Amino acid sequence: MTGKASKSAHIAGTRKPAEPQVSITSKFWGRYRSMTVNNALPYQWRALNDEVPVDVPDGTAWGENGSQFSHSMRNLRIAAGREPGSFSGQPFQDTDVSKWLEAASYALGFAGENPDINIDELEQQVNEVVDLFADAQDKDGYIDTKFEIDLPADQRFRGLRWSHELYTMGHLIEAAVANWESTGSTKALNVARRAASCIDQHFGDGEGKVHGPDGHPEIELALARLYKATGERRWLDLAAWFIRVRGMDPEFFDEQDHAGGPQFYKDLHMPLSYFIMQKPVLDLDKAEGHAVRLLYMATAIAEVGQLLDDARMLAAAERLWTNIVRHRMYVTGNVGSCQIGESFSYDDDLPNDLGYGETCASVAMLFFGKALMETHPTGAVADVMELELFNGMLAGIQLDGTRYFYVNPLEADPAASNGNPTKAHVLTRRAGWFDCACCPANIVRLIASLDRYLYTVKGNTIYAHQYIANKTDFGNGLVIEQSQPGEGYPWSGDIEFQISNPEGLQRSLAVRIPAWSAKWTLDIDGRRTYVQPRDGFIAIDVSKPETHIKLVLDMSVRCLRASLNVKADAGKLAVARGPIVYCMEEVDNPHDLWTYSMPVNAQVSEHYDAKLLDGVEVLKFGGVRDVQENTGLYIAVDKPVERRAAELTMIPYYAWCNRTEGQMQVWVRETVR
Amino acid sequence: MTGKASKSAHIAGTRKPAEPQVSITSKFWGRYRSMTVNNALPYQWRALNDEVPVDVPDGTAWGENGSQFSHSMRNLRIAAGREPGSFSGQPFQDTDVSKWLEAASYALGFAGENPDINIDELEQQVNEVVDLFADAQDKDGYIDTKFEIDLPADQRFRGLRWSHELYTMGHLIEAAVANWESTGSTKALNVARRAASCIDQHFGDGEGKVHGPDGHPEIELALARLYKATGERRWLDLAAWFIRVRGMDPEFFDEQDHAGGPQFYKDLHMPLSYFIMQKPVLDLDKAEGHAVRLLYMATAIAEVGQLLDDARMLAAAERLWTNIVRHRMYVTGNVGSCQIGESFSYDDDLPNDLGYGETCASVAMLFFGKALMETHPTGAVADVMELELFNGMLAGIQLDGTRYFYVNPLEADPAASNGNPTKAHVLTRRAGWFDCACCPANIVRLIASLDRYLYTVKGNTIYAHQYIANKTDFGNGLVIEQSQPGEGYPWSGDIEFQISNPEGLQRSLAVRIPAWSAKWTLDIDGRRTYVQPRDGFIAIDVSKPETHIKLVLDMSVRCLRASLNVKADAGKLAVARGPIVYCMEEVDNPHDLWTYSMPVNAQVSEHYDAKLLDGVEVLKFGGVRDVQENTGLYIAVDKPVERRAAELTMIPYYAWCNRTEGQMQVWVRETVR
Prior knowledge:
CATH topology of the largest domain in chain A: Glycosyltransferase
Pfam family, one (chains A, B): Glyco_hydro127M
Domain Non-reducing end beta-L-arabinofuranosidase-like GH127 middle (chains A, B): 461-555
CATH class of the largest domain in chain A: Mainly Alpha
Largest sheet of chain A: 7 strands, antiparallel
GO biological process, one term (chains A, B): carbohydrate metabolic process
Radius of gyration of chain A: 25 Å
Number of domains of chain A: 3
Distance between the termini of chain A: 62 Å
Protein name (chains A, B): Beta-L-arabinofuranosidase
Low-confidence stretches of chain A: 1-17, 59-67
Mean pLDDT of chain A: 94
Domain Non-reducing end beta-L-arabinofuranosidase-like GH127 C-terminal (chains A, B): 557-669
Oligomer: homodimer
């Protein structure tokens, strides 16, 4: 059992206040947290160690001898000189291990939250991975097993369009910081510092240096994180350099190719916008290109912008966020509406049956939102983070933690996925693994670090973003406990805060009033309080030794309509309740889902079913279903379509595809009576 | 001016009655016919001769020096030894010239229809092309300029997956037959017979012969046609062999590859079903794979089945047709709903915004329907042929004949085509040419041979399939004149037949009652006649010297609803009037088209606008338009969507995209009041 290291113990200088010590007590998220440690991380460990022939959706064979194994741990052992063999997998295969290490390190830190959580083996595995990375690292700090095993040293950093070297090292840096923060051990952190130092030596404006970035952003946010952990300014400067150089030289990748650098994925001809290289990245005003690349970049821009107080960076981050949430985000929070290039497409283009909505992109929206909150906490950003947490991101993982979606559609049909290749990317079963296995560990590292997404402290104000029950020590005796009676959030909107502040520190607690909660009541120490939120928060003075706050949010079922600019949702409604977006599944609704419709003011019955899908609130609507004699493909009609009363059953979107495979849809046609 | 050759003058034996001599007098089609000769064929001639830098939609550069020229005539001149140079273009580039030759040959035959038609230059160009083909042909009969120019002779017929050699020779055979039929010259026909003989020598079950077919069906229907023209049985037997061998050996293409045959399009990995090679073709019961390949094959199966009276073939053709028209055809007649592989997808999968609906596939549906009619004339088949003629096929050509659609969507939006790569195949402007330029000449050869689609003679019954005004000489004095007073069909449903039969031949004229015409009146020699159609036709005795028939079809505007199995059309209506399917265009409707809806019994006003789009009936409906304050991407609502009265203007689908570029949609949301 590993205790938490003091996060204020910076290696060089102390620049920020102590992090709050958060323990998550939420019933809903507590289940996900223990599932992550007890099921997901062990399953992924076996996958990374080739102990399960991982179940790849399209049957793609990769790895040595065409097997369907990850090979990522083996690559590390080979690079570390522990066994012979050759590299196998994607050039960035190491990141599957790094993200696992990051998630596992978080888990070591929060294991005390729940007696169900078992980390006996995990700790040993974490140490094994750290040792492997340390041994695999070259003496100059370089670490990327693809290059170390397969390519001569003079090829390093010379094929950055697809090499993913900095992406790979960035994930290792993130993992190392997490490992140090959780365990207090500096072994991994020193690997990260040597890797960052190697990058610093090779990249920059000077003579003989590489003057452009990696095709996949990641190093920028990793370096910002390394700076925040260590206080070493050079990592922040290097992160800022990578941001400022991006898109300055549109020829950069071509020049590397012409200079004889290594070329991967030669058959993939992606436009510069895919790499977020089409123009100086700080001039972007639309979210374009590969969604995860854009969002990792935007996260770094927001973080570095905040750390440097750089107005241009902060404005760029704000523009991108605004464009996404106003024009390029599904109602579930998923982003990236185009499969080709896993990319954003154009404003208000949100096809439900074709969308990509990569799980990693929703995870990245949480990174991005968290970074924006550090500069300027607003309820609008926290609302989107909540949307991702409970919907867009969460749909990416099976309830038991062992199967994953890469793509998150808002409308699915096994017949379409099997029968029309344009929709083949839309799986209707979560998969055990992927040949590009970025998503499984990404969602797990987010859940394992969820405690970091609950609060932002600005001056004397503590912003409580999320209604995820927790007990948090802010130091100097200040403890905030958020509790949720009964089944708790997201099923109930009753939230209580007990603030203990024995030293009487001057503090405000800003509680979020979600935009979706049209009504709410707020009682402070038993007295009903009427105040309008500012920027989505109500700030409450908590300077006295004890304060009790009771907030009741409006959990009425809501019908949502999309902007009329969204063609895909014309004439349709979506349903939400609290933070949860709902969907229909074939298993609950016996006819083709597109034959159902409902009025905006449909009769609704709701009940919490503790046995269904690990406990969900089920909604049933009084709607209708089109009926028509099957007399041909097209028939002339002179009467309105015949409709029969029908019950529409809906479950939370995040929980879909945990029962029988079948049709699913979020948007339902609106019946206008 | 070239007179028509007697089509009964078979080279070897006379097996069938004289073809009717049809002159099309339809105002609607007369315009298309003269436009074809005066505009389309000259434009295409210039394109084939590299005299216009053809305007390729995606800017693909091909041809010598990366130019955007067809090079197809140059390839022929090079192969004919008339000039030096190397081959350029697709392996099947010759077929662009063959199809042009076929169309131009038809035009020589029908030039007398209309004094506007000018064939002075055309005749000379036709002769030039025939001479070139004759000179380009190898002494053993082989002719395919790609192979003759680029590859050693021992590579011939050894890479049939993609070589298109038999496809290429098949189109030449079709052109040659058409040329002989129109001009009476046997020069081209003899080239065709030598080519067919070369194929006959190389293919078959015997030792040393190639035992499989070309990856792209075409030779089968070409050989059947050569047989019908010449009466030479070997071509029919060879066509039947190609049909029977197809799909018998799923390894055939792989074996050719392993044996060192030439390989084209190596990066394209298409399943066997794309080539209609997944199983014995006569066992198919669903239309799968590349739509044009499937339909050329199905046409040959129907034709050869009829010629051989082969029950298995006829049943296979019938199954495929039935599957298409019941489950895989858009309301406009377009087929092939998937861009990937230009293919059929699965039953009832008919996405309006993603569909492919290749112009060539609609042309091929006409070939297939015509072949089925030869065995068993039914109104249902002729109805689909009419649907293709006036809608699915006709949308493929600009009104002036010089720009073409390859893909025919039922919903288009320039923003989507430009902004979402999944929809990049959906052009919102017809293009001047294509790197794979199959469609322009295909639609032109169909229009130029339209006279062949009007009648089927079975025994003593003459089936009049189409309401396209014409005057036709059936020999022995029997002349049928179909006239359409006023603006004529398809705008008016008044049709008259005057039958002159001075010799009193025992004949019936079977007139089609379209399934879309719920009511009709039929007057024979001025007397109202009540009789139910059988198989979609009413047979009228026309044995007396003169018979006058007046048929009035129901041209009421109809609303159509799709089968509830069609997800894409759920809650939507399409509009048709007579044979014409309608659409909305942005130029006529100022708001985003998806915001409009209409009830099934909407008030409609109709007027014929002679100045608009070369004369169309315009429909205006009293419908509604959704309105909503633009307060965000998703808003909570508790009232039905607000709707304002709005006029929906519709024009014929075939005429879309002849004005300003903009949105288009066929299916409109149904408002249920």
